[in-house]
Amino acid sequence: MTTPVLLRVDDLSVGYRDADGAEVRLVDGVGFTVHEGRVLCLVGESGSGKSLTMAAVLGLLPEGLEVLSGTVRFRGQDLLTLPERELRALRGNELAMVFQDPMTALNPVKRVGAQIARAVRAHHPRTPRAQVLARVEELLTEVGVPDPAERARSYPHQWSGGMRQRAVIAMAMANRPALLIADEPTTALDVTIQAQIMDVLADARATSGAAMVLITHDLGLVAQVADEICIMYAGRIVERGTVWTVFDEARHPYTAGLLGSLLSAERAGSRAYAIPGSPPAPTRRPPGCAFATRCELPARSELCGTTRPELRPAADVTHESACHHADRTLEFARAVTA
Amino acid sequence: MTDTDLVRKPPAARVVAAAAGLTPLERTGVALVTAVVLFCVVTPFLPLYAPYAQDLSRAFVPPLTDAAHPLGTDMLGRDLASRLALGGLVSLGIVLLVVVVNAIIGMVVGLLAGYHGGRLDNVLMGWADVQLAMPVILVLIALSAAVGPSVWLMVVTLAATYWVGYARVARGTAMTLRDRDFVLVPRIQGASATWTISRHIAPGVAVQMLILASSDIGAVLLLTSSFDYLGLGVQPPVPSWGLLISEGQKYIRQAPYLSVVPGIAIFLVVIGTNLISQRFTAERDLRSARRRK
Amino acid sequence: MSAVLEIDDLHVRFTSRRGLRGRSVVHAVDGVSLTLGRGETLGLVGESGCGKSTLVRTVFGLNTPASGSVSILGQRMQGLAPAARRKVLSSVQLVFQDPYSSLDPRMRVHDIVAEPLRIAGRYAPERVVELLAEVGLDADVQQRRPAQFSGGQRQRIGIARALALRPEILVLDEPVSALDVSVQAQVVNLLMDLQERLGLSYLFIAHDLAVVRHLSDRVAVMRQGRIVETGDRDQIFDAPRHPYTASLLASIPHPDPYLRPGAPPRP
Ligand SMILES: Nc1ncnc2c1ncn2[C@@H]1O[C@H](COP(=O)(O)OP(=O)(O)O)[C@@H](O)[C@H]1O
Ligand SMILES: Nc1ncnc2c1ncn2[C@@H]1O[C@H](COP(=O)(O)OP(=O)(O)O)[C@@H](O)[C@H]1O
Ligand code: SF4
Ligand SMILES: [Mg+2]
Ligand SMILES: [Mg+2]
To answer: Among candidates A26, A76, A9, A2, which has minimal Cα distance to A311?
Structure first.
């Protein structure tokens, strides 16, 4: 790949120490790279550690949790050792965020326009007022808010959920970030609104050339926007590759199961594949492969219960899998998605 | 520690586990209240116990000077330790009665108003507002003037007027719970209101009533003690802490301990219960904070 | 096919006071007619706020309709005496969307599943075990409380409770919307099995078209309190007549990267 690396995460672990001093790893040895202008999707069930991974990258971990290992390099600069002041300057400038609930980013008692203006001013404090107002209007127009001058003067509660998310995207794009981190930005929205928001995100990225890390559990969305995919399970990345190979040649039984459990037109009226059971709690992960209790790969062996599989090239260097029997998954994937 | 751990252990272990989870301040609260209550309960079984026996030759014995009267004697030579213990049983008994009756009335009114809503809600809560607007002390003075002061008059007046806070909380919780999905299930099945309330709504409300009651004990003790002091509550010769203070007041220069000792008893219980009840309010804030996340 | 549930020109309105002057009236359900045939699954799709849950609540008598009627197993619910109404209603049961608020956190699983039996005076402990087995849960879960279960398991418990009185109709109000993808498939498969075994009729409500397509025989599309289109599943999905249905369908992201605009040809 020739595009330069923007963000590189290596061996990142996040967690806490329990009462006995033992480490509980909620995110365990996660690594990936995001190239300039490209889209990486973090995919997995709720609780798999997607949000914590990106919170650690941004230095926004909730209280009580800490980074237990790893490095995070943004344009070669280590974010984990960066002083809070400099990190804050980076956030909202080169790094921007959009969350599932737009109200986490909006102040309910301030006019929407004023909040976007603040984002514009945050990193260019001396911009003249008229110029800021013009920029706010421009941003709102870019994210498809009708009557931007008028709407900018109203409060968040007067906006619908979809419109609020547009406002948050406008704020995020205010300083033309190089990397946009979107954590389930459309999960709370209806499909038609979701489609609009995804279009807005695509347009905003097209004008700014920003790369994006999209956190989602919706494989439909992933198929539509991703360049690269990381599938997470129980705090680890279990499969990593381009969108083209992961969807067509799943190299991990979990990915195959997820694809198989999609309810689609072709399978209407018949039984979809269902992964049995549910993911283990972070404190009760089995010693070997965390997926072993649910894995139905015919080739699974004793090794699965004893040795933890590491992420290794499966098909070629761009497609990796953390399964001892990655070479036997294609057949299984075909069977469950048939 | 999780709730389920607490549930599974035998009762004694649960008490130990619960105590281990207390902060030093809360443990102090428990210790204070336990000490005062133990004193009131145990003293009547001691040989020195004689709350009504007078001995004018041994009046005004100061505390800690006579082994037969460890807390001294009053103007009539009655043993102060005995009177303090009996007064404590009377005062605390009244407080408990008032708080329990208030909590029950408030819970029932609040549950009915919150669950049924509509007109019943308007009527019940309207009545509650009227109750709240009535100045308890003036009502009690007026009634005492009319039928003569008595301890029962005080208890009944307080029990009838002090439940509004309980009712408001119970109503609020009942209103939010009644539209929860799990409450819709029996409603859809055609279960009676009694069924639905007693199984799905009352248990949650009862816990809140208990918390409110625990934080109310100090306030009600102060209130009833002041009524006793004013002569509107417990009548002599039966002692209560409020009454002991007022009796001692006349000899405040000669024997200040007569008022100070019961005052300390009230103070200890008020401080102790407040320290304990803080745990519940803190826990509730914590829980709602967690839910908000 | 005989109809087990018939909704005829149903109107439900909410009046809310707005500030000092005037009230505003929300027509949450605005002239809805639907028919659910025996043994069939009718999918009801629509975006949030279009009135799906209000319709459900009205079927169960929790909202009073302004006009129109609901008939269950041929009996018109409006104007039925309470006792007769309760009897008819026991053949329709509801499964909720949110597996976290649909089970009383204080109660044990046994008592949760037993509640409808107890209300109807038909309680038998063996029946609870039988119901749990029906949804794929072991008898040893009975003494546990909801907090110890995952979302999918809670939804199973809710389904077991709904089956307690041997209903003929299940109204499923977004039963898998709150679940993870892998668990969604488990619950959807369970629902299909139950329908086959017990001959249930489903009114299946969702905003997720993929799930509706997977389960339904017929589909009704709801928008702003009205049904804009009803038809067989394949007709609705392959040849929608109403532009709103078409726009809904166009919004579903298809889980195949080679179908996105500008995708390379599949190797
Ligand atoms: N503040 C916290 N304290 C302890 N555990 C947490 C905290 N936040 C999240 N977790 C746990 O970490 C795991 C991963 O969480 P998260 O990254 O939010 O998952 P995802 O975004 O994939 O749904 C979950 O098991 C969750 O319960
Ligand atoms: N109790 C109520 N009072 C006032 N308005 C209500 C009430 N219940 C629902 N509504 C309104 O009715 C409409 C339909 O809501 P609902 O049936 O919950 O939609 P859905 O289930 O399709 O998301 C919404 O506009 C909602 O705000
Ligand atoms: S390592 Fe074994 S248990 Fe884990 S996914 Fe591969 S085959 Fe399944
Ligand atoms: Mg998350
Ligand atoms: Mg709904």
So the answer is: A9
pLDDT in tens, B218-249: 999 999 999 999 888 888 888 999 999 998 88
On whether any CB of chain B is under 8 Å from the CB of C82, the answer is: yes
CB C171 within 8 A of CB C94: yes
Q: From atom 16 of ligand 1, which residue's Cα is the shortest distance away?
A: A49
pLDDT per residue over A134-151, tens digit each? 999 999 998 889 899 899
- The alpha-helical segments, DSSP class H, found in B117-256 are 118-133, 136-147, 151-161, 164-178, 181-188, 193-196, 202-229, 241-249
Q: Which fold has domain A5-230?
A: Rossmann fold (3.40.50)
Parent domain of B171: 4-8+27-44+86-292
Residue span of the structural domain in which C70 resides = 1-91+168-174+190-252
Long-range Cβ contact pairs of B132-136 (< 8 A, separation 24 or more): B132/B164, B134/B161, B136/B161, B136/B162, B136/B223
Highest mean pLDDT among A16-25, A252-261, B3-12, B118-127: A252-261
Amino acid present at A237: I
Considering the domain architecture, whether residues C122 and C76 belong to the same structural domain is answered as no
User: Which residue in C has a C-alpha nearest to residue B188's C-alpha?
Assistant: C60
Residue with the two structure tokens 């119901």? C131
Is C180 within 8 Å of A217 when comparing Cβ atoms?
yes
Contact (CB<8Å) C150/A273: no
Ligand 3 contact via A304 beta carbon (within 6 Å): yes
Q: Which atom of ligand 1 is nearest to the CA of A63?
A: 1
Place of tokens 């979701």: A194
CB proximity under 8 Å: C 85-144 to A: none
Angle between helices B24-42 and B257-292 (to 10 degrees): 140
Determine the residue of chain A that is closest to C186 in CA distance. A274
- Ligand 5 centre to CA of B196 (Å) is 23
Q: Express each pLDDT in A81-114 by its tens digit.
A: 999 889 988 887 899 999 888 888 899 899 999 9
Cα separation, C67 vs C108, in Å, equals: 40
What's the complex ipTM?
0.87
Q: Is the predicted pLDDT of residue A232 greater than 90, yes or no?
A: yes
Q: What's the number of domains chain B is made of? A: 1
